[in-house]
Amino acid sequence: MKNVKVLGSGCANCQATLKLVEEVAKELGIAIELEKVEEMQKIVAFGVMSTPGVVIDGKVVHSGGIPDRTKLAGWLK
């Protein structure tokens, strides 16, 4: 099971990214543990300066804007 964190303050793009991660994982049949991180101190600890950010298994794979569905699928596989 992959651990996925969506980093962001709760803005519209952050919410859309959270929903997109859920949808893509479900479409691919991949079990994920999804966590929303809203505390700015924790977000900065990942080195993310623009949100939303996506962290998969402890590695930052995206920051700033909603990620592309195809790229997200590749990260989850």
Summary tags:
77 residues; Glutaredoxin; alpha+beta; single chain
Description:
It is built from three helices and four strands; from the N terminus they run βαβαββα. With 77 residues, the protein is an alpha+beta fold. It has one domain (2-76): Glutaredoxin (3-Layer(aba) Sandwich), CATH 3.40.30. The chain has a four-stranded mixed sheet. α1 crosses α3. The longest helix is centred in the first third of the chain and has 17 residues, at 12-28. The termini are close together. The relative contact order is 0.28. The model has no long low-confidence stretch (mean pLDDT 96).
Rg over CA atoms, rounded to whole Å, is 11 Å
Provide the CATH superfamily: Glutaredoxin
Which residue ranges are poorly predicted, with pLDDT under 50 across at least 5 consecutive positions? none
- Figure out the total of helices: 3
Q: How many DSSP-defined strands?
A: 4
The gross shape turns out to be globular
Q: Widest sheet: strand order?
A: 2-1-3-4
Cα(first) to Cα(last) distance is: 11 Å
CATH topology call: Glutaredoxin
Strand content: 25-35%
Short description:
This protein has 77 residues and is of the alpha+beta class. It has helices at residues 12-28, 40-45, 69-76; strands at 2-7, 32-37, 53-56, 59-63.
Topology:
Layout: E1 2-7, H1 12-28, E2 32-37, H2 40-45, E3 53-56, E4 59-63, H3 69-76
Parallel strand pairs: 1-2
Antiparallel strand pairs: 1-3, 3-4
Helix pairs in contact: 1-3
